Structures are given as structure tokens and as C-alpha cells.
Amino acid sequence: MSALERERLVVLAEVAAKRVSQRRAAERLGICMRQVKRLVRAYRDGGDGGLVSRQRGRASNHQLASGVCERVRDLLGDKYRDFGPTLAAEKLAELEGIAISRETVRQLQIKLGLWKPRLRRRKRVFQLRQRRARFGELIQIDGSPHDWFEGRGPRCALIVFIDDATGRLTALRFSPAETTRAYLAALKDHVLAHGSPLAFYSDRHGIFRINAKEAASGDGKTEFGRVAERLRIELIHALTPQAKGRVERANQTLQDRLVREMRLRGISTIEDAQAFAPTFIACWNAKFAAPPRVEEDAHRPWADNLQALDEALARREERTLSKALTFSAGGALHCVRTSGAGIALRGAKVTLFHFMDGAMLVRYKNRALACTRVKSLATPGPAEDEKTIDIRLDAIVLAQKRPSPAISLQGRG
To answer: What's the pTM?
Structure first.
């Protein structure tokens, strides 16, 4: 008999001898009156043996059939070898038609040596911040450089936008590197889908804020900061990674789930991954998103046309036209074309709009000017930071691996 059954035997013997009431026995054993009555009848009919579970020594009613168990073992050891228990259980049900609990999968993975239980350790305690009340009040943004294609394609970065109130993914953008252009592309996707949020929550990288203490000129804003200001979006910078834990945890989950989803679909390019992103976002939000505490949407809908949004996202800079109506930009000399003499434009200050697709617009007092590229100018090499240097070095390494052309020694000596 087990310890529980021996404890019940002592109490039920007193109930059978009418020294303890059934109500008192139910309180001592922590069971209901109906269960006490059933156990008393079993004790009177079968004695001590009547309290022993009849299921002991028998196979569990929920035990997997041997054929199913072997098939699950084969799938876990091959197709889902590096899947976590939760994701493996979901894919077994979704793709293989085998309904099995997450814990059963975990136990099978432990037996196969595919999963090691995590050791519990004392961690620094961070006070949890309550979610914001409305969808769109605060969007946490971050980039995750990772081998998203597991060697089938180049390493790249994933720009992640996630809502603080609901945990909904609002934008995913694959890019060769974590750059301002990649964040602006994700911002465009977010605005077109939901509108402008009230605030962004990011780290303190140079993409989002000016970190140089000696910077004495300029407006003190980065290009992303200027775009956020045009769209009336506040930028809030976190002091620690734990402060923006929602997007950090989302990055970890994406590196687990999204990588394996793309593997199952054979996705190996940035273009195919970007095409799959809306489908994955919908599945993520259906599974993990929580309802907001307040139903009102805090986004400001974008009421203007797409061209106006492109202009708001464009990089802007000012130039002064020469007497010949020329200006330099983007490593080239450009000349403004006019129908007349163009004397009024000499020395005029014009604004250049550099769009994300590479196009350029020249504007003078809300009037677009036509211009022609005259010649190319010598420009220095691009500067790199820690978020773009990896892709630059990968290109250098790839160039070194290419076979160099054979050098002919004929005609010498």
C-alpha cells in the first residue's frame, strides 16, 4: 500500500468502528463526503485490500499505442530533432495528425537525449511593469541579427515591432543588416496596417539617439528620430535590455519558432521570408496575443496618401544651388533644369528628399524641380558600426573564397 492508502486505512477504520463521523473523515482526508462513503463500502467489503487502487499494475488508459509511440520517436529523432517540446507537440498535431501532450513529448525527448531539463538558478529579480492599457500606446522595437536560414541563405537581421498592451506582432521586416532603412521599412508597414502609435520603446543605439557627447552641431536627432517627430511618435529609450523584456523575449521565441517554420517550408531567401511574414504574424497573434485592458485603439490612422507617407519617411537634406544651378548629392553632381533663364534660383536653398527606393526629389518652396545627373564625384567608403559590420565582413570573406584568376608567366625571363 502507498502512504496515502495507509493514511486512509487508519481514518476509515475509525469510521467503520463509528468512532469518527464521515464528515470529520472527509475533512481530515481532504476529500468529499461521497468519496468517503465509497471508500467505507470498499473497506467493509474487501478489508485492507479494498483500498488499494484497482489500476495498479495495469497499463494507463492514456498510454500511447506502441506503433504511435515508435512513429513519434522517429519523428522527434529526425524531422523535429531540435524542436522544443511545445513546438514539436504543435507540429505533430498540425502536420502529422498525432495529438500528444507537450509533457509527453518532453519526456520522450529526454529519453532520446534531445532535451535537457533546464537547471533552476537564482536570477536577479526585476520588478514587472504592468502592460499598457490600449493597443498602440507603446510599441517595443528591436532588431535580431541571427542565422535565420540555418546556412541555407545569408545571415540577416529581423526587425521586430510588438505591441506592449497585447503582445501582438505588428511588423516583421527582414534585412541584410540592422539599419535605419530597415527600421523605416518596418515603420511604414506598421503605419499602413494600424496607423501611427503614440510611442516607440527602443534601446539606446545610434539609430535612435545621438550618443556622441562631443556633438555640438545639428538638431540632436537621428534620421529615425526626425521621421518619428514628423509622424508625432514619441521615442523612449530603455536603460537596460530587461526594461524592454517583451520584445527581447519575442526575439528568443522567434529564433526558435520562426526558424523552424521557415525550415519546414524550405524558405532560404530574404524575399521569400518577407512574403511569409504576414502569415506567421497572423498565426503568432492568434496564439499569443492577449486582449487589451481598454478596447479603444490608441493609433492615429494615416489619413493621407501613400506618397505623403513616403515623403515623411524620406531622408532630407538642404543644398544651396550654384550660379549654374548645380548641387552635389549622393556622390554625383546634379543640375536643375528650368524652362527659362533660372536667375531666381541662383543661390536658392533647396530640400532633397531621398526615398527608401533610391529615388530623389528636389523641392524649392513646395515646388518640385526637375534635375539631371551631370557627373559622378569621388566619395569615401561607407562607415560601419557594430550593427552593420558583420554583413560587410561576410562580403569580404566571400570574396576571398572565390578562386583568383590564374597568372600567366609566359614571356618572362
So the answer is: 0.73
